[in-house]
Specification:
The chain is of the alpha+beta class. The protein folds into three domains: 102 residues, Beta Complex (RNA Polymerase Alpha Subunit, Chain A, domain 2); 84 residues, YbbR-like domain (RNA Polymerase Alpha Subunit, Chain A, domain 2, Beta Complex), CATH 2.170.120; 90 residues, RNA Polymerase Alpha Subunit, Chain A, domain 2. 22% of the residues lie in helices and 47% in strands. The protein is built from six helices and 25 strands. The strands form seven sheets. Strands 10, 18, 20, 21, 23 and 24 form a six-stranded mixed β-sheet that branches. A four-stranded mixed β-sheet has the order 4-1-3-6. A four-stranded mixed β-sheet has the order 13-8-12-16. The radius of gyration is 42 Å and the shape is elongated.
Length: 328
């Protein structure tokens, strides 16, 4: 019974509060409360006040072959005076960094200095016309740069390259630029032999590739470029046959050698784009030194490939008969 009375009491209080909330007296109270709050905020916003602002510093355009030797300041702390509303917007927005250009360090002896007047002039672009600068710290900026040693090194691609079946490289892998300049201390540069790219995995490759690849950073050194272009030509290959005459090597003067047959058939694989290239990419040789060493009626033939574009070279027959003739 007591529980029902308690619930009824709560309901009665809720009805009374609701009736008061929507009464004329309550609405008038809320209106004047909001109005007084607005007047208070307007008074605070329009009243001059002081505040601290931090402006970040960004150092840019440092020439290749130079490094910053000291530890220049990374931000400027200002004490400013303005109306409260303007100061509020400073705190809410993200200030753009103050950019300091280092491109002329070579002409200024490796030093860049900004006086308090120069800093204040640069900071004026960040402030409202009504804002007064009371003070800032630090009151000057000094950057000391040093020139580094340099060496030019080849670029070495780190490739995990696997071609799809029946495909071959149409040419050697091309890297552009093929060399880069590395800047650093002499003891660091002396340990380097090449600059490697970041690892690249190309598996079951069927199409040519033209891509930009980042270079592997070098500890305690900087590079003239951050990336290189990698070009890899890929094409299908086919089998090619050619009839090639047998030539002779290391034959002493006064002796002539004839082989039987005089012409043999050479079979090899080659990319489609190079199928019509001249036949002289392959030479078939009978070596006179084999004749002296083996003393056999048939001697093996040696196949010499003059082109990196052909592979899996076979010759038929692999041995030939021969005769030696004495010349006057």
């Amino acid at each position: 019974m007591a529980g029902k009375e308690y619930i009824a009491l709560l309901r009665d209080l809720a009805k009374k509060f609701k009736a008061f909330l929507f009464s004329k007296d309550a609405l008038s109270f809320l209106f004047f409360l909001l109005l007084s709050t607005a007047f208070w905020f307007s008074n605070v916003a329009n009243k001059p006040r002081e505040a601290n602002i931090t402006v970040p510093i960004h150092y840019e355009a440092l020439p290749a072959g130079f490094a910053v030797a000291n530890h220049p300041v990374q931000e400027i702390r200002l004490t400013v005076r303005d109306e409260g509303l303007n100061l509020f917007t400073y705190n809410k927005r993200r200030l753009v960094p103050l950019n300091i250009n280092l491109s002329e360090v070579a002409a200024t002896g490796g030093q860049v200095k900004l006086s308090s007047e120069q800093i204040l002039s640069r900071l004026s672009y960040y402030l409202y016309p009504t804002t007064s600068v009371i003070g800032f710290s630090p009151d000057s900026i000094f950057v000391q740069c040093e020139q580094l040693d340099a060496v030019t090194l080849p670029v070495r691609p780190r490739l995990n390259l696997k071609l799809a079946q029946q495909y071959v490289l149409s040419d050697s892998v091309a890297v552009s630029p093929a060399e880069v300049t590395v800047y650093g201390r002499r003891d660091v540069l002396n340990r380097l032999q090449a600059v490697e790219t970041m690892p690249v995995d190309l598996l079951q490759l069927k199409d040519s590739v033209d891509m930009l690849v980042p270079l592997q950073p070098v500890d305690s050194a900087s590079l003239s470029v951050d990336e290189v272009r990698l070009r890899i030509g890929v094409e299908m290959f086919t089998e090619k046959r050619a009839r090639v005459p047998v030539t002779f090597a290391h034959v002493p003067p006064g002796i002539a050698v004839r082989s039987f047959p005089a012409v043999v058939e050479v079979t090899y694989n080659i990319g489609l784009s190079h199928y019509g290239t001249p036949q002289d990419d392959v030479t078939v040789v009978l070596d006179y030194r084999d004749i002296l060493a083996n003393k056999q009626e048939k001697q093996p033939l040696h196949v010499i490939s003059h082109s990196p574009r052909i592979f899996n070279v076979r010759v038929q027959p692999g041995e030939v008969e021969f005769v030696l003739e004495q010349q006057n």
